[in-house]
Amino acid sequence: MPFAAEQQRTKIPVTIITGFLGAGKTTLLNYLLKERGTKSIAVIENEFGEVNIDRELVADNLLEKEDLVSLENGCVCCSLRKDIVKAFAEIETRSKGRQKPIDAIIMETTGLADPAPVAFTFFANPWVASRFKLDSIMCVVDSRYLLQHLEDAKPEGTINEALQQIAFSDLILLNKIDLVSEEEKTQVLRAVKKINSTARLVQCQLNDPLQRPSVDMLLDINSFSINRALEVDPNFLNSGSESEEESQSTNPETSDSGRQACGPEGSGRNEKKERRPKRRRKKMHDLSNVSSVGIIARGPLDEYRFNMYMKDLLSEKARDIFRCKGVLCVHGYDNQKFVFQGVHETICYGPCDQAWKQDETRINQIVFIGRGLDKRSLIEGFRTCVWVPLPEGWEEFTDPKTKQSYYCNRKTGEKTWSRPAPIATAYVTSTHASTEQPSISKQRKIPRLD
Ligand SMILES: Nc1nc2c(ncn2[C@@H]2O[C@H](COP(=O)(O)OP(=O)(O)OP(=O)(O)O)[C@@H](O)[C@H]2O)c(=O)[nH]1
Predict the structure, then answer these.
(1) Distance 274 CA to ligand 1 centre (A)
(2) Distance between CA atoms of residues 40 and 64, nearest Å
(3) CB of residue 326 inside a 6 A radius of ligand 1
(4) Distance 69 CA to ligand 1 centre (A)
(5) What DSSP assignment string belongs to 348-414?
(6) Alpha carbons 95 and 325: distance in angstroms, whole number
(7) In the chain, where are the structural domains located?
(8) Strand ranges of the sheet holding 104-108, from the earlier edge strand across to the other edge
């Protein structure tokens, strides 16, 4: 075998999973991990919000917990670009202790990431290029919301993330076909083909074992093509912001390809950049009006209150809340852990496969990602959902017809539907608050709200 081909063969294939918020990327990742057979797979998980729910949802499908590297609270295409190289280095270091070497890496990007700069790392950084090859960029499309996301008005000169993700992929999974009519599906297919007519297109329902593509169709398929990337963006190979020294770096510790990231904050002015020759102006990745609010609350949730809170919130804000998800501890369910998943107004809330472990701290973690989020009212609302014991004299009853709880004061005879509990003991923290850090989540550096 010629040397170049042999070298290519021994590189670890990397699959990038892209797709808008809530499209089904983690569902796909978990499916690939469960059905991996004898392959040993490492995962790079990138989460936009500081509260990392996906790590929790993926962890149980890993062979070893060391197989997961998390890049949190930012986008790999923006502020965390330099961290991609470090993540690869981390995987290489960790895999040295393994009996079986890593066969493949899957990187799940945030739903707001532009895959182009991530792909660029494979060509710009010689250290990465010598060890890893980009096998495929796979885009999971949410058939129900794609058209809405494509229509989103974006400021002049900025990218539409949903469009860019489709344009840059070589395999497109048209997911959630159970949620659209035939006519809607035809419209979505037409829109996808208009953006990208060359990618392989597979219709699927990733949450249904009978409607998923086989793993062989998804991993180690060698379908990324640099020529196609250049067709989509002739400037692709200039698209990074690496300076000459950075892109030649063979040491991942010093690699700093994220310094001049896309987006208004990242278009940083350092001297190196100003000395470089001018390139054709690229579209920016502008997330200035999009934010995430992460909330961590100790103590079980009152199920009824939480339902009401979400119902009220989504009846007003469903279009702007792109995504919410959480792991919850609900009062009255012993060790049962709950997962909450929301994509705009589509909500799914149910028991998790795993129970709370004996020594696990029972906390609720929830994250909202969206446009123009009102952080304080989200947190205050969530605070009222935390369950606390009833005050002296009050008892809880269940209405036999509606099955809804109501409360009765034994002494005064007063009745009420809403829980008459003081909520001052509720303990809620926000990832965006500014005061000091409580003990509950030390390693995540989440500041305390109250
Ligand atoms: N109806 C339906 N729901 C699906 C399908 N695939 C995934 N889901 C659900 O969609 C929700 C979001 O799925 P995830 O896999 O977490 O989406 P994601 O793209 O990883 O989300 P982010 O990481 O937040 O961007 C979950 O409730 C899934 O169970 C599908 O084919 N049909």
Answers:
(1) 42
(2) 10
(3) no
(4) 21
(5) EEEEEEEEPPTT---EEEEEEEEES--HHHHHHHHHTTB--PPPTTEEEEE-TTT--EEEEETTT--
(6) 31
(7) 3-275, 290-388+423-444
(8) 68-72, 41-47, 104-108, 12-18, 132-142, 171-175, 200-203
Q: Which amino acid is at 77?
A: C
Radius of gyration of the chain (CA): 24
Residue where the block lists tokens 């079986």: 100
Per-residue pLDDT tens over the stretch 286-320: 776 788 888 888 888 988 889 989 999 998 899 99
The ligand 1 atom at the shortest distance from the C-alpha of residue 208 is: 31
Nearest residue to 219 (alpha-carbon basis) of 31, 75, 67: 31
Residue 143 Cβ contacting ligand 1 at under 6 Å = no
pLDDT less than 50: residues of the chain: 241-250, 254-281, 423-427, 430-450
pTM: 0.79
CA torsion angle 154 28 62 104 (round to 10): -80
| Nearest atom in ligand 1 to 348's CA | 27
Chain length of the chain? 450
Mention every residue, 6+ apart, whose C-beta is less than 8 A from residue 249: 125, 126, 127, 255
- Pair 131, 11: CB distance under 8 Å: yes
The domain over range 290-388+423-444 is classified in CATH as 3.30.70.100: no
Q: Is 235 helix (H, G, I), strand (E, B) or coil?
A: coil
Two tokens at 217?
């169709």
Long-range contacts for 255-259 (Cβ within 8 Å, ≥24 apart)?
A: 255/82, 255/85, 255/86, 255/125, 255/127, 256/82, 257/81, 257/82, 257/84, 257/85, 257/121, 257/124, 257/125, 258/78, 258/79, 258/80, 258/81, 258/82, 258/83, 259/82
Helix (H) or strand (E) holding 312: helix 303-317
Write out pLDDT tens, residues 24-48: 999 999 999 999 888 889 999 887 7
Closest C-alpha among 13, 37, 102 to residue 66: 102
Cα 117 to Cα 78: distance, rounded to the nearest angstrom = 8
CATH code for the domain defined by 3-275: 3.40.50.300
- How far is 67 from 98, CA to CA, in rounded Å? 10
